[in-house]
Amino acid sequence: MSEQNNTSKPKSSRGRRAAWISLFAAFVVGILFWGGFNTAMEATNQEQFCISCHEMKVNVYQEYRDTIHYTNRTGVRATCPDCHVPKDWVHKFVRKVQATSELYHHFKGDVDTPEKFEANRFRLAQNVWTAMKETDSRECRNCHEFDSMDYTKQESRSSQGHQDAEDAGLTCIDCHKGIAHQLPMEYDPEQDVPGKSVFYTKRD
Q1: What is the DSSP letter of 195?
Q2: Where does heme 1 bind (predicted)?
Q3: Which of 25, 65, 75, 129 is the most buried (most CB within 10 A)?
Q4: First vs last C-alpha separation in the chain
Q5: Domain extent listing, the chain
Q6: Which residues line the annotated binding site for heme?
Q7: Is residue 166 a contact partner of residue 152, using CB atoms and an 8 Å limit?
Q8: How far is it between the farthest Cα atoms of the chain?
Q9: What whole-number distance in Å separates Cα of residue 26 and Cα of residue 31?
């Protein structure tokens, strides 16, 4: 009986030691995986990554460079991810997963020329507008909030427009479509927001 107890103790000790080693190894692997995953997420969240695709660099990026979001008196630049990628991790991850579908169209060459891009601009713009509307212009509000605005320091047109929009429950994208990119030829502001001004980038 005594010999049997002495034999079981070393086995039990070895089992616990193996469990702790396995747990520690799993922890280290988890840290390495998370670090690599987060690094990859951040690498794809840079403007240079966004314009590494020919479609973006020769079309919407060139338009964006002529706007106040790119160059302004204060030197504060809103880059592609600032406007198109959520800040919080969960929504950011969801957006990255959704973006994988864009790779299919990239390799398929659906919008790889200015002509193809222009032919699809309205559909692409509507997709972005709808997404921004559904989130109450969440990415815009990272920098712009009605509660933070001093209407007395705005031009009369902007001041009145913002106050009217706040009272009507409108969101940024309702009136600011095309603020960083040219509006599609097919877009009709009167059908979209009747009686309201739409601020946009003028087409050449």
Answers
A1: T
A2: 50, 53, 56, 102
A3: 129
A4: 95
A5: 1-43, 53-192
A6: 50, 53, 56, 80, 83-84, 102, 140, 143-144, 172, 175-176, 181
A7: no
A8: 95
A9: 9
**Residue 64 CB neighbours (<10 A):** 22
Structure tokens at 188: 């009709």
Tell the burial category of 173 from Cβ atoms under 10 Å away from its Cβ (0-12, 13-18, 19+): buried
The string of pLDDT tens digits covering residues 34-60 is 888 888 888 889 999 999 988 899 999
Give which of 60, 176, 191, 58 is closest to 121, Cα–Cα: 60
What residue type is assigned to position 194 of the chain?
P
Tokens 């699809």 identify what position?
Answer: 120
Q: Which pLDDT tens digit goes with each residue over 71-106? A: 999 999 999 999 999 999 899 999 999 888 888 888
Tell me if 171 sits within 8 A of 192, measured CB to CB.
no
Residues making up the binding site: 50, 53, 56, 80, 83-84, 102, 140, 143-144, 172, 175-176, 181
Torsions phi, psi for 98 (to 5 deg): -60, -35
